[in-house]
Amino acid sequence: MGLDRALSSAMRAALDRAWQIWTWGWQRRYRVADWSYAIWYFPFVAMGNALGQGARPFPPFVPGGLELPFTLTVFLLLPALVSLTILWRRSRPGYLLALSVLLLFGFANFVPATIALYSYAAWFSDRRRLALWSGAVLAALLFSYPPLNSEAPTFMLVIVALVVPLTVGLWAGTRRQLVANLRERAERLEREQHLKAERAIIAERTRIAHEMHDVVAHRVSLMVLHAGGLEVSATDGQTAQTAGVIRTTGREALAELREILGVLRDDPAAAAPTAPQPVLADLHRLIEQWRTAGMDVSWHTGGTPRPLSVQLERTAYRAVQEGLTNAAKHAPATAVVARLDYGSDELAVLVANGPPATPVSGDTRHVAPPAGGYGLAGLHERVLRVGGRLCAGPTADGGWRVRAVLPAAPVASDEAPHSDGPSVEGR
């Protein structure tokens, strides 16, 4: 078992290394091709210089005593110079073209002309200069291999040294330009697709903002107005107090809703919400609101409270808020226990309620409000975003429990959220 695992690891490492080498070579493939051409053409240029002199009817005159320097020039210096200019064939093609024409005139060597014409046709789009250089190569070929005096078939040399390199080079250049254009078009289409998707997202966000404004905001505004009127006209003090709580809570909900709508709308002037999001220090206000509304809430804190990250505290606050909201919707008039436990490396949030009470026939005071079923799903996403775990489900006595465990690494005091009031403990 261990041997198989070692072999598989070694094979994966070898494949990764081979892929890295292939990627490195592919990114530098043109430079590798330049060096390959330079090395490959060196012996053929030297051979072409020697064979070309034998094919010419008028060999150059070499004075006595200069045979050795002439031989070194023919077989070493000129081939090395051709190889050097091949390395610049994609940036300075004129050097290679001029040298190939000189070698044709001086030594009847047509080998450098093949790579020179091919490179210019493949990498450059100036057809006028290409025609001029092709004419110069053709003139040098006819000068070095005259059709009437040369034993070499001039027609075949023109095809090999001129027609074939030009044809292959033009095909390679056209193909590369076509591939580059297709790649650019694909990238442009991909960018356009991303832009269309972003526009669709913005349009959908704007539509959602409009729907929320037209439905939710108007309904909540109407509820706040009715609560304010009831608070003013109520003769019973308890009724006026309850109406005031409803009015205050509705106004806070409207303020938060307007901030969210400002983010959702496709409006450059709309600013993101600047009001601080609720954190653990705001739990006392949340608990008091539910107690004022008539919910029997027991609040406990375990462990040693310490500063935590803002995102973590927001998630814990939303977990308590969602648990209390579920208890109010589905189990009204039951006792609710909310608990916050600080562990060494985690924060546990628990909200549990007893079984829902059976409403009396005709009693509409405890009718559960309509629920969309998205609260726990959204809370689950929040908890997963901070790397925690969420467990929500019924208990053995018929109640319901929401428990979230969040990784709680301590933070510096200047990074912790600021408290706006004392914590609430007990009932």
From TrEMBL:
Keyword annotations: ATP-binding, Coiled coil, Kinase, Membrane, Nucleotide-binding, Phosphoprotein, Transferase, Transmembrane, Transmembrane helix, Two-component regulatory system
SUPFAM superfamilies found in the cross-reference section: ATPase domain of HSP90 chaperone/DNA topoisomerase II/histidine kinase (SSF55874)
Keyword Ligase: no
Top EC class of this enzyme: transferase
Residue ranges constituting the Signal transduction histidine kinase subgroup 3 dimerisation and phosphoacceptor domain according to the UniProt record: 204-267
Transmembrane segments annotated in the record for this chain: 35-52, 64-88, 94-118, 154-173
Coiled coil: 172-199
Entry EC number(s): 2.7.13.3
Recorded catalytic activity of this chain's protein: ATP + protein L-histidine = ADP + protein N-phospho-L-histidine
Origin superkingdom: Bacteria
Protein name, entry field: histidine kinase
Source organism: Salinactinospora qingdaonensis
Taxonomic lineage from the root: Bacteria, Bacillati, Actinomycetota, Actinomycetes, Streptosporangiales
